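Teaching assistant here, posting this on the class forum so everyone can see the example we discussed in section. The complex has two components, and the goal was to see what a joint structure prediction looks like when all of them are supplied at once.
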Amino acid sequence: MRPAILAALFSLLMFAAVAAGQNLLYWPDPTWRAPDGMAAKPNPLADNPQAMPGGRKLFLRNCAECHNKDGTGVPKKHAADLQLPIVQQQSDGALFWKITNGNTGRGMPAFSKLPERERWQLVLFLRTLKPVEREN
Amino acid sequence: MKQRLALSLLALFAATTCCAAQESPYFVTYDHHMEEPGNLDIEASSTTDIPRAGQVFYFAPYMEFEYGVTANWTTELYIEGQSTWNDSTIFTGWRLENRYRPLKREHWINPVLYLEYENINEADRIQKEVEGTAPDLSSPNSVLRKMKDHELEGKLILSSDVHDWNVAGNFIVAKNFSQSEGVEFGYSVGFFRPLATLASGSTCRLCRENFSAGMEIYGGLRSTLDGFGFNDTAHYVAPVLAWLVSDNATIRFSPGFGLTHESNPVLFRFGYSYEIQGLGGKLAHLFGGRP
């Protein structure tokens, strides 16, 4: 009886997560934090919205494999759901630092191979990822 | 059963997404950027020379399979051969290399440890690295192929990204267990930069953002048997160019110019690489494992 209840609860939780566009298998790493100086860095492309489509292209090319095209994250890869407030509330500088350095212990590669301005374009695009289902 | 497995594998490759093949233009130098975990990069490359008097004209093709085991560990298998003008075409051996990046974060200088086992022969011409004294470029293949090289090679890779430039230096130490050559040394340094640093919103193939260019310099530094130095060694200076022809494919080209009499006057290197994303996870899924 007990395993059946657990299975039912798990299924309910998974259904709720999928319905809300969430990746339940994503557990944020509390030790992965940008240094204060880096987190305070403003996005130099913030006043250049024309740079955003380029960021979308880069996201699809480099990030969508793990984070999905809508940023929700592929569950089996334990990839971050980029729509979550815990991600969106971070500063532009913090997101830039995380893209640059990666979190290799948790499978997130460093993308320092991309030019600096392209990494800022990615940050610009990340800001457009909204949890549509929850807003509706 | 076999048919079912073959169909499953076919379906797996068809379903495998592909993107993100932003390769560095280097042929010889390694930087600190690793293959993304689970991705397989397949590359067909070749090295061709323009010989000077007494040297032979050759074409040395090789296949490279690079797999990202984890975000900081990349493993690579090489299969190589060569064809010499007025001589023969032979298989020259294989190599297995591993690169490990010990530091988690980006630093001013990023070290990577490299270890390679080579099972090749002296007819090997791909010149993936140049070490020790100059290679024998005049003896026939029938003689060279009998001289086996079971070699262990280590590299210290130091690499840095500075204002969109990549600067990398490799120090090479190699020990051939088949012949008494002592411990051989070599080096390689390089730098490159993308031609544009802002991505356009459109899908363009010939625009500057898809190209990167730079230069590398590599050569041998003799061995413990001959003494560390530059005498009788081959050295090259080589401009490098990479073109991201599609989201998953890169073409690289490099003409190398010999700096010493022991070098080939010119080396042409050409490479085409194709990246398959998420192959590891899909293979694991196919065989019922955890991705």
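For the discussion questions: Chain B is about 10% helix and 50% strand. The interface with chain A takes residues 17, 19-20, 22, 24, 33-34, 36-37, 68, 70-72, 101, 104-106, 161, 163-164, 166, 194, 197-203, 247, 277-278, 281, 291 of chain B (CB under 8 Å). Think about how each of these relates to the inputs above.
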